[in-house]
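ESCALATION

Customer reports they have been waiting on this structure for their group meeting. Please prioritize. Original submission:
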Amino acid sequence: ETGLEKPVIQTRTKKLSEKNGEVKYATELEVPGDFGEVGAVIVENEHYNELFLISIVLDGFENGPVNVVCDSWVHPRSKDSKNRVFFTTKSYLPSETPDGLTRYRAEELSLLRGNGEGERQQGNRIYDYDVYNDLGNPDSNPDLARPVLGGKEHPYPRRVRAGRPRTESDPLSETGSSNFYVPRDEEFSQVKQSAFSASTTSAVLRAVVPAAETIFIDRNGCSGLLLIDRHVSAGDRFFWLKDEQFGRQTLAGVNPCSIELVKEWPLMSKLDPEIYGPPESAITTNIVEQQIRGFMTLDEAMKQKKLFMLDYHDLLLPFVGLVRQLEGTTLYGSRALFFLTPVGTLKPVAIELVRPPSKEDGKPQWKQVFTPANCSATEEWLWKLAKAHVLAHDSGYHELVSHFLRTHACLEPYIIATNRQLSAMHPIHRLLHPHFRYTMEINSLARQALINADGIIELAFSPLKYSMQLGSAVYDQRWRFDYEALPKDLIRRGMAVEDPSAPHGLKLTIEDYPYASDGLILWDGLHQWVADYVSHYYPDPSLITSDAELQSWWTEIRTVGHGDKKDEPWWPSLATPSDLIEIVTTIAWTASAQHAAVNFGQYAYGGYFPNRPSIARTNMPTEDPTDEAWKQFIDTPEKALLEMFPSQFQAVVVMAILDVLSNHSVDEEYIGQVMEPAWGDDAVIRAAFERFNGRMKALEVVIDGRNANEKLRNRNGAGVLPYELLKPFSEPGVTGKGVPYSTSI
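Update from on-call: job pushed to the front of the queue and completed.
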């Protein structure tokens, strides 16, 4: 009636029990009958150390217990004079917030935002934005200087701000100290940390890399073909030589996101011909028709949507000159063309490798097309070498773009904005919360050991020290939020068309496309769960436009977190429940299924490097050959292939790190399996989640059935690895299946 807050009711707790490191405290509170509904509990920690508060249960009310889920670290009063407030599991839109909670809701958000000043300390809970200015280490070595990612010159998503001192030699870069800050509650749990520490990136750096350097003294030395382990071979040691595997893995491998329909002929570059040479592709109609003779003409193949391509030509060509100045590597712009056979598999047709003209040495543009040979041993070996180059390009693109950029870096702004703008009691915060678990911590570790100067990516993946600049170029030229939704991505690449009569409203261009066919079922299940949830809290569109927190959240994602893209016209509006459903489903899909599809098969497909070399170290023998070099290739072509493959040192490092990255921890939370407490306390949401859980269980059965279908040759057959990357559930370890809620590794 008065609008004033009720006086708080205070007490001290006493230790009740301790078991397996978990302590229970208890107390009694006397709550007057007219107090009203309890909405929050304020906690003060009088211990000397921080404590992890799991939950609070208030028992004794007529309507049953009140649950307060905390799952948060609480600092001792000696280190933080501000008490912590924890809200009950009941969700409120801002306009529906009870008067007694309004101040606490606003103050908690203000604390999480911080003031953008000072250096963050371990244990802080502040979420703010910064550019990627900590990848280099110019003070220790000028060769380790790296450009800042984020801004007009090198656009990139933002990361969490640490506020460390700037380096002496580069005022734009932060010192890469041991303080790679993430907010305290974003850090790994003790269970995750103990499991991760045993075989982590840091362990690879501290143990495997030095050991590899000791054994293989020359980082650029001979290739490591001796390494054979449990991989895609499934008993066939020579699977990696086969063209059918080359085609199959574009649809059912670890990077099924690059294959696209050929929509225009002839193939043309869009780069400036004054800089990069004539734009016409050397892949001619005659070359293609020689390879598909007996099936159809090229015109018929185009009309029937039978030609597909991996196109890294325009993307890589600007980096060729830079990369070729580095020791122990090379680079081309590349195109790989495939034909869809009547049995639904992709037959490799041609590979084009291109070197742009060089002002330094005056060499003109060089380009050559390689095709599967019918009866020429020389052409057959050249085809193998060309495939190795394309696979190295695809491996680098996968790691830097399909994996890190799209499912790690682009997620971090969503996490920061959610904590800064959506209260913990906001229903959308609670919907997205499990999709953000551990992501900021794993991104921080990546900046320390994977994507940093002289880190694992620069040691072993094409294009070495220019890797992150390649990621920035793709973000600038190709990344769009709306295309991160699976249906729109498939349509954009020509891999599907809208068809209201087809399942999921899409007709796939290639029916046996495991990533897409399994993914669409998961997308639809996730979309329906989000739709049920959003419709419950937003029955009227006016609630969307009047939700100040929600509108600030979406504005901050677009204009700050992805600020280099803020003026793009393709950003979705947020005015209706359907707008919100699409936005949230896209974020949740990216964090869960998209990451699972490109991550948890890395060891299986890339650990045995001949199947998926991370780098190609030598030029093609046909590029400006000397008589001596050509004779050496003719005499020992297998040596040319081994020299092109990663070195033993690189192979060991890649195998070790891919094993780490493909691992599920024991505390993994899988999509549709674990119900958040706030969801379970609302009968409508609980019922919607149970339906979602049922859909995920049904998907497991569907995938098993598809993998057993002999007609689906991209996921069934002798020596073929079943496609299980989008099976929702898994046991711990390297399993090649399981979709966690979040990008947690």
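Sent to customer with the following note: The longest strand covers residues 346-355.
Escalation resolved.
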